[in-house]
Amino acid sequence: MAVDLRTRLAHVELPNPILTASGCAGSGRELAQFLDVAKLGGIVTKSVMVAPRAGRPTPRMAETPSGMLNSIGLQGPGIDAFLQRDLPWLLSRGARAVVSIAGGTVDEFAELAGRLSGASGVTAVEVNISCPNVEDRGQVFACDPEAAAAVIEAVRGRLRYDVPVFAKLSPDVTDIVSVAGACVAAGADGLSMINTLLGMAIDTQTMRPLLAGLTGGLSGPAIRPIAVRCIWQVHEAFPDVPIIGMGGVSTGADALELILAGAAMVSVGTAIFNDPSACIRILRELDDELATRGIDRLADVIGLAHEPGRMPGRRLSGNVI
Ligand SMILES: Cc1cc2nc3c(=O)[nH]c(=O)nc-3n(C[C@H](O)[C@H](O)[C@H](O)COP(=O)(O)O)c2cc1C
Question: What's the Rg (C-alpha) of the chain?
Fold first, then answer.
C-alpha cells in the first residue's frame, strides 16, 4: 500500500479502515476462501443474540433498484456457540473481531456484554440498537434517544473497560444527531451508521408483498446519499467521536466519500453478495484514490469535506497542513 491507511477505532489502532458490515459476511468464515480475513481492518460479525434464532420466514431477500431488501431477522447461533466456535476461528486467522450484539431488552444487551467481557480477543463491540424493544410496544431502541442510551449505558457498564463500544444507529429517525448525542453521553466510544432503512416491495404479478415478513431493510447503493448525510450531520456535531460509516459502498471512491463526510472506518455490506472479495478490492481502490490525489495519510482526509479551503499536503497561507 502506497498510503498510510492506519486509523483508530477509539483507542484501538487498525491497519486500514475497511471492515465487513454486520450480517453480510457471517462471522467471516464464508469469506476466507476469497480473501485473507486478517488483511482487512476488521470483521464485524452478524449480530448475535443471547439465544439461537431461526430468523424470519422466506422469501426474505428481494432486489430493488440499486439496492436490496432483506428480512433475515437476526438468524444466528446464540452467544454460547458464537463464543465456542466463531470467535476462536476468527482469532486463529489473525482477524480483528468486532462483535455485533442485539437484544430485545436492555437486560439482554447487558447479558451479552457480560459474556463478551469474559472472552479475550474482542477488538470492539458494535451494539445493534435497530431491534424492537419487546418491553416498549416493539418500538425500535435506535428510534428513541432515551431507549438507545439505556442500552449503551447497560453495555458499557458490563463490558471490560478496554473494549470500545460502538452504537449502530438507524437512519429511520427525524433527528439522528440527538440519538447520536444520547449514545455518546451514555458511554459510547464511537458510532456506526447507517443500518438499513425500512422498506417494502410488492410483486405486481402475484399482487402480494415480495417478502414473507412484509417489510425489510433497504441496503446498497440506493442508500449511500442517506449514509453520507447522516455521517456528515453527526461528524459536524461530534467531530471527535469516531464513526464507522456504511451504506452502499461498492468502490474505493464510495468509501472515500463516506470518509470525507467524517467516517474513520468504512464497512462494506451488500457489495459482498455480488463480489465476495469486494472488501479487499475496495481497500486497494481506496489506496489508489488517495495516492492519485497525492495524499499520503488516510487520517488527513477524515471529515475533510467539512473544511473548505483545507487540502492535505498543499501549502495554504504559508502552513503545510
Ligand atoms: C442481509 C443483511 C443482513 C444484515 N444483518 C445485520 C445485522 O445482523 N446487524 C446489523 O447491525 N446490521 C445488519 N445489516 C445492515 C448492514 O450491516 C449495513 O448497515 C447496511 O446493509 C448498509 O450497508 P450496505 O449498503 O453496504 O449493505 C444487514 C444487512 C443485510 C443486507
Answer: 19
Query: What is d(CA 56, CA 70) in angstroms, rounded to the nearest whole number?
Result: 10
The whole-angstrom separation of Cα 121 and Cα 119 is: 7
Q: What is the pLDDT of residues 115-125, one digit of tens each?
A: 999 999 999 99
Q: Report how far residue 296's alpha carbon sits from residue 294's, in angstroms, rounded to the nearest whole number.
A: 6
Cα 21 to ligand 1 centroid, rounded to whole Å: 6
Average pLDDT over residues 237-245: 98
Cα-to-centroid distance, 22 and ligand 1 (Å):
5
Atom of ligand 1 nearest to the CA of 126: 11
**Can you tell me the distance from the alpha carbon of 231 to that of 45, in angstroms, rounded to the nearest whole number?**
22
- Give the integer Cα–Cα distance in Å for 128 and 23: 11
Catalytic-residue membership of 143: no
Taking the centre of ligand 1 as the mean of its atom positions, its distance from the CA of residue 290, in whole angstroms, is: 27
Among 60, 140, 195, 267, the mutation site with the greatest number of ligand 1 atoms within 8 A of its Cβ is 195
Domain extents in the chain: 7-56+72-199+219-320
Residues forming beta bridges with residue 192, ordered by sequence position: 168, 244
Structure confidence at residue 320 (pLDDT):
40
> Are 261 and 232 a contacting pair, CB within 8 Å?
yes
Residue 43: phi, psi to the nearest 5? -110, 120
Residue nearest to atom 10 of ligand 1 (CA): 22
The yes/no answer on whether domain 7-56+72-199+219-320 falls in CATH 3.20.20.70 is: yes
Backbone torsions φ then ψ of 302, nearest 5 degrees:
-65, 115
